[in-house]
Each structure stands twice: as structure tokens, then as C-alpha cells.
Design a protein that fits this description.
With 112 residues, the chain is of the alpha+beta class. It has one domain: HIT-like (HIT family, subunit A, 2-Layer Sandwich). Helices cover 21% and strands 22% of the residues. The protein has a five-stranded antiparallel β-sheet, with helices on one face. The structure holds guanosine-5'-monophosphate (5GP) and zinc ion.
């Protein structure tokens, strides 16, 4: 499968890894939108949140926990934002499920 994030997980495309375990992998976004901008992805290829099924429930929870763990390690005690862009209207551009962890600045609401 020609998936950039799968290649990053496999180490075929370089990235700055910040977390990895048996289920997930996290790395710095190449085009950061905040002082801390990390992408948290499942090792398993899942196209988007919309493509996740009932069997993926524990995995989804694990990724959310991993994001919180990374935020703690990054010292984001003032808060942060988790974003999961999903599908065309959601602004998803990379077709491998990913959580954005954004922090280190004040976020605005609603997002654009
Ligand atoms: P989306 O728009 O799908 O929610 O987010 C995709 C994110 O992946 C974007 O923030 C973009 O900067 C990031 N990205 C795209 N290609 C690469 C890459 O090759 N390496 C890294 N580290 N990030 C990437
Ligand atoms: Zn993939």
C-alpha cells in the first residue's frame, strides 16, 4: 500500500519519533501549526476515523491515552488540543488515521 504514514512507521521515510509502542506511533508534524504538533497514528493501517470499526474501539482509546501521555511528557500543563480531521469536509489530507496533538499556544474556537 502506498501510504506515507505506514512508511514512516516502518522507518522507510524519516521522521522525528516522539512515542512508540506495540499499537501506536507518534512523530512530529512536518509542517507544525503550533509549537508542539505531534501526529499519533495506529501501527495498523486504518484509513480514517470513519473507517474504524467496533473491533478498533480499544485501539482508539489507546491512541487517545498515548496523546495525553505525550502531552504530559511535553509539559503541556496549560492544556492542548486533539484534532482528528476526518474525510473531505473534515479537512483530512493523509489517508491513515491520525490524531493531531497541538499545544504550546492558545487555541481558538471554533476552528476554521
Ligand atoms: P490532515 O490534514 O490529514 O489532518 O493532517 C495531515 C498532516 O500530516 C499535516 O499536518 C501534514 O503537515 C502532515 N504530514 C504530511 N506529510 C508528512 C510527512 O511526510 N511527514 C510528517 N512528519 N508529517 C507529514
Ligand atoms: Zn497507512
Amino acid at each position: 500500500m502506498n501510504c506515507t504514514f505506514c512508511k514512516i512507521i516502518e522507518g522507510k521515510i524519516p521522521s522525528t519519533s516522539v512515542f512508540q509502542d506495540e499499537l501506536g506511533f507518534a512523530f512530529a508534524d512536518i509542517n507544525p501549526k503550533a509549537p508542539v504538533h505531534v501526529l499519533v497514528v495506529p501501527r495498523e493501517h486504518i484509513g480514517s476515523l470513519a473507517a474504524a470499526d467496533k473491533d478498533n474501539r480499544a485501539l482508539l482509546g489507546h491512541l487517545l491515552w498515548a496523546a495525553a501521555e505525550i502531552a504530559r511528557k511535553k509539559g503541556l500543563a496549560n492544556g492542548y488540543r486533539i484534532v482528528v480531521n476526518t474525510g473531505q469536509d473534515g479537512g483530512q489530507t493523509m489517508d491513515h488515521l491520525h490524531l493531531h496533538l497541538l499545544g504550546g499556544r492558545m487555541m481558538t474556537w471554533p476552528p476554521g
